[in-house]
């Protein structure tokens, strides 16, 4: 594989995970964000994750230091000019991503491939922003990125074969099993997952079970490692809502129409783990309990 340097646009939950994964596998990783505060949060989060692995005996101290030394944090998009692969992991908003794509093309080197980690926005539509849409592809990681061994490679209508080859090689190098999805809303996994998560919100609204019982149902009954409400808190309630809206608009089927409570949670700032409150409240000491405000809703 010829990829040596990966530039990641957006150092939020996913961008940070991608940067950590890339650096842990020995490649140079650059995290870019418009927010300096977010970059600092990202850096601290990566250090914490690696320290946890050292304390559990899964990583040597020197490996942790070597991984950290391969990561840099920048607020200047022009620094992508020597990257072999650029992965966009900014907020799930088409206008934001289109603006980024337009800017990226000014700086990216000619043979760099450019990918988006979007969960729902059309790769073909974003690819239109490039003079050469063949260089653009979807590399859809799953959270938490360093742990989950799947990547959906999403082929836009104009994605070139070399781009698919480079993205797949990088995915495999990062320890992922790559599955190829065509460019339809939700790709493969979210197409199936989203209606299930949405229905879990409806169960909460209708008080069919408590928040903990709904999660327990899927964990014990179907052997899922996390319940749907825990999963939504991890992914981010705002991210889930944005993805559902795109799926609902594109596919039209009512099963993708976001539950009302999901919209209200975003309005209330109950954005999940990253905000300290979602379906659960997350305390500093790592404990969590069901969000009392949601229990009060009639
Ligand atoms: N959360 C998940 O589990 C998950 C899983 C797979 C894919 N995704 C996708 O990954 C992307 C990022 O999701 P996230 O959960 O990390 O969101 P997030 O809200 O945690 O992070 C988004 C980051 O983008 C930054 N940003 C916004 N505008 C920017 C710009 N113009 N330039 C650079 N950075 C900018 C923000 O400052 C923020 O740090 C989305 O497209 C989402 O659909 C998310």
SS-based class: alpha/beta
* Tally of individual helices: 12
Bound molecules: nicotinamide-adenine-dinucleotide
Strand order of the largest sheet: 3-2-1-4-5-6-7-8
Shape: globular
CATH class of the largest domain: Alpha Beta
Gyration radius over CA: 19 Å
Order of helices and strands: EHEHHEEHEHEEHEHHHHHEEH
Distance between the termini: 56 Å
Proportion of β residues? 15-25%
Number of domains: 2
CATH fold-level assignment of the largest domain: Rossmann fold
Helical percentage: 40-55%
Query: What is the CATH homologous superfamily assignment of the largest domain?
Result: NAD(P)-binding Rossmann-like Domain
Parts with pLDDT < 50 across at least 5 consecutive residues: none
In short:
By secondary structure, this protein is an alpha/beta fold. It folds into two domains: 178 residues, 3-Layer(aba) Sandwich (Rossmann fold), CATH 3.40.50; 107 residues, N-(1-d-carboxylethyl)-l-norvaline Dehydrogenase, domain 2, CATH 1.10.1040.
